[in-house]
Specification:
single chain; 742 residues; alpha/beta; 8-stranded mixed sheet; 12 strands; globular; glycosyltransferase; Nucleotide-diphossugar_trans; cell wall biogenesis/degradation; cellulose synthase (UDP-forming) activity; membrane
Length: 742
């Protein structure tokens, strides 16, 4: 039998993808041949040909980035059983949960996430859970206090019966017979736990309905007369594991950092940095796990899985963080909003894992505190005094924080015996003005300057030469809820596009990180692929307008039927769609899910991503600043029988205006073509079936918008948006005809 000490804690397993590589290269060469044809005959055609050439050049460049990113997919297999045999004492882990709005992010969701974290399979005396409440809500605090009482029962129950799903709302929605022991003792305890959880849920619901949990006295006195964006810091130790019991309840701390109108708070990145500072003072664990408030633990051994690569032989000076993919529970059937990202994570994420490592996705990640504090791989083995002083000089004026930072960099954990001893210093480092004159947000901690602080922070970590690792245990480590409506999905996509472009147009651009840092070239290409999401809106919008323009003006941008190049275009269309369909089928998705993702790709690019692009342009011009918009969180349901589920929803937001306009323009163009209202072709070669096919295809992509034109309520496009779209469509037709006359 092999010696467990000699066996690796994790294995890197390359995926075989010879066929995928061949198809990727075939599509790339077909795109190149199309570009060569366009270029050779550029002088013989007009503006439409040139515009098509430019758009197709962009698509070819994007496809080259995709090929590079997907070329070397890998998987990692971890062995937590070997970890327990090899490591005499597991390191401490500080767990961070962030919430920002008790309305968009209901407290019951946050409570379930916290309960699942408190119950993970890890020594309780090595854990501490910190909840950052940027909404400064007394309801959120009240919910956590009540949850801590229930947790004393729930954690014991989970570990006694080895419960796999440790978010109570998810557990009790399942058949109890499928979990643990089915003895009479178990059944009695199960009923007791369910009654206790229902009692907890009712208390939280009652508090939400009343808007205030109780009188603002005692523990709630600090919440009286506060404004959400103008209040002092509030830090509460809800529960402290004073006896350091291995099977007890981990520390639970509530934090609402100080906010003042004239002090920038840097959204989630600012909250994460406050969590890093406060936890550094209180527990100073060498590792930090962070999750969004809706991302509950689905695999109780998650922390053990993450520790395998972080503590594996020679890993400490290579791997900065363990990232788990985002997986969603109770998603709508066939992914109607295209936001469950199953195929994206299976192919693109595993491809990136074969490079320098996955991007930091802002949730489901365990970081090394040393790395977050700014340490480089070369300095890990022996942190000399000069290196430590250089880093600590950026920490600010708190002597206690500098001392804890020095201990963290040297690999020592020497937290105070009681959390309450650090309260005063914690208030200082949670102040709105503490970061002035420091390097928090630039050289230390989570990075500022982008609404996608996760990608930005991960990029800066990779720039220093660190690697990251993607772990996909079975069952998935975390489960979250995907946006379940058109407006919330569009808001999320817009925020992503905005933040990614902010990074691309900043000093943190991955090109600079490769030229002047330690970011690997192909990792740079992978970052460019994701950072340019917002830029894609312009060529896609232009390419989408071409068929309509050609039908209205009776010109063409596609090769004619008698030209062999038409078969190149047809081959690209057919091969690409069959190829992507095969990816969805191999991932266990349906044909309908594939089509939903295809059309949502067009809808998101020409709507949400376009507005993200415009937001960044306005920021660069100094006209306005970008805003972090919180996404609506709901406890998704597995009940797919709801007739309303999956139907596209709209609101008054202008984010739906471009899509509505594109649809009206193409409907108009098809009517013009059908009724033969086109002017005579200038060169005898007017629009043909190719342009008609493209226009029909785009109408099919925007089918939810077509239904929205005739829908009512939230399933209908508001009349004001329809009127604006009609006006813009008329302007497009007018200027198209005018250009033909000129």
């Amino acid at each position: 039998m092999a010696n467990p000490i000699a066996l690796p804690l994790y294995e890197k397993i390359p995926r075989k993808n010879t066929l995928q590589r061949l198809v990727d290269i075939l599509i790339f060469f077909l795109l190149l041949s199309l570009l060569i044809y366009r270029f050779l005959f550029l002088k013989n055609h007009g503006l439409t040909w040139l515009l098509a050439f430019l758009c197709e050049s962009w698509f070819t460049f994007t496809w080259a980035l995709v090929i590079s990113t997907k070329w070397n997919p890998v998987e990692y297999k971890t062995h937590p059983d070997r970890l327990l045999q090899r490591v005499p004492e597991l390191p401490s882990v500080d767990m961070f949960v962030t919430t920002a709005d008790p309305v968009l992010e209901p407290p019951i969701i946050t409570v379930n996430t916290v309960l699942s974290l408190l119950a993970i399979d890890y020594p309780a005396d090595k854990l501490a859970c910190y909840v950052s409440d940027d909404g400064c809500s007394p309801i959120t605090y009240y919910s956590l206090v009540e949850a801590s009482k229930f947790a004393k029962l729930w954690v014991v129950f989970c570990k006694k019966y080895n419960i796999h799903v440790r978010a109570p709302f998810r557990y009790f929605s399942s058949n109890p017979q499928t979990f643990g022991d089915s003895s009479s003792d178990f059944q009695q305890e199960w009923k007791r736990m369910k009654d206790e959880y229902e009692r907890l849920s009712h208390k939280i619901e009652d508090a939400v309905q009343k808007s205030v949990p109780s009188d603002f006295t005692g523990d709630f006195a600090e919440f009286s007369n506060i404004e959400r964006k103008n209040h002092p810091a509030i830090i509460k130790v809800i529960w402290e594991n004073k006896t350091s019991l291995l099977d007890g309840l981990p520390h639970l701390v509530y934090i609402s950092r100080e906010k003042r109108p004239k002090h920038p708070h840097h959204y989630k990145a600012g909250a994460m940095n406050v969590l890093a500072r406060v936890s550094g003072l209180m527990t100073n664990a060498p590792y930090m796990l962070n999750v969004d408030c809706d991302m509950f633990v689905n695999n109780p051994k998650t922390a053990l899985h993450a520790m395998c690569p972080l503590l594996g032989s020679k890993s400490e000076n290579k791997i900065a963080f363990s990232q788990f993919p985002q997986v969603f529970y109770g998603g709508l059937k066939d992914d109607p909003y295209g936001n469950q990202m199953v195929v994206l994570f299976k192919y693109m994420a595993h491809g990136i894992a074969g490079l320098q490592g996955p991007f930091y996705s802002g949730t489901g990640c365990i970081h090394s505190r040393k790395v977050i504090y700014g340490l480089s791989p070369d300095d890990v083995d022996s942190v000399n005094e000069k290196t430590a002083n250089n880093i600590l000089s950026n920490f600010g004026s708190s002597k206690e924080l500098i001392k804890s930072g020095a201990n963290a960099l040297k690999g020592k954990t020497d937290p105070p015996p009681n959390l309450s001893n650090s309260i005063q210093a914690s208030y200082q480092v949670s102040g709105s003005g503490y970061e002035y004159g420091t390097s928090w947000g630039t050289k230390v901690g989570w990075k500022y300057g982008s609404t996608t602080e996760d990608i930005h922070t991960g990029l800066m970590i990779h720039k220093r030469g660190w690697r990251s690792i993607l772990l996909s245990p079975n069952p998935p480590a975390f489960l979250g809820c995907a946006p379940s409506g058109g407006p919330s999905s569009a808001t999320q996509q817009k925020r992503w596009a905005t933040g990614l472009l902010e990074i691309l147009f900043s000093k943190s651009c991955p090109i600079f990180a490769t030229l002047f840092g330690e970011l690997q070239f192909r990792q740079c290409l992978a970052y460019l692929w994701v950072l340019m999401w917002g830029l894609r809106s312009i060529p896609e919008l232009c390419y989408a307008a071409l068929p309509a323009y050609c039908l209205i003006t009776n010109c063409h941008f596609l090769p004619k039927v008698q030209e062999p190049t038409l078969y190149v275009l047809a081959a690209i269309f057919v091969i690409y769609n069959v190829y992507t369909l095969s990816e969805y089928l191999r991932s266990g998705q349906s044909v309908r899910a594939w089509w939903n993702n295809q059309r949502m790709s067009r809808i998101n690019t020409m709507n949400a991503w376009l507005f993200g692009f415009l937001s960044v342009i306005l920021k660069l011009l100094g006209i306005s600043e970008t805003v972090f918009e919180v996404t609506q969180k709901d406890q998704s349901s597995d009940d797919a029988s709801d007739a309303e589920a999956g139907r596209f929803t709209f609101n008054e937001s202008p984010i739906f205006l471009p899509g509505s306009t594109i649809l009206v323009v193409h409907l108009t163009a098809l009517v013009v073509s059908l009724l033969k209202l086109q002017p005579p072709a200038r060169d005898g070669h007017g629009s043909g079936l190719g342009e008609v096919f493209c226009s029909v295809y785009l109408v099919l992509c925007f089918w939810p918008f077509l239904k929205g034109l005739f829908g009512k309520g939230r399933h209908g496009i508001p009349s004001s948006t329809i009127c604006k779209s009609a006006a813009l469509a008329l302007l497009f037709v007018y200027f198209s005809r005018r250009a033909t006359i000129d």
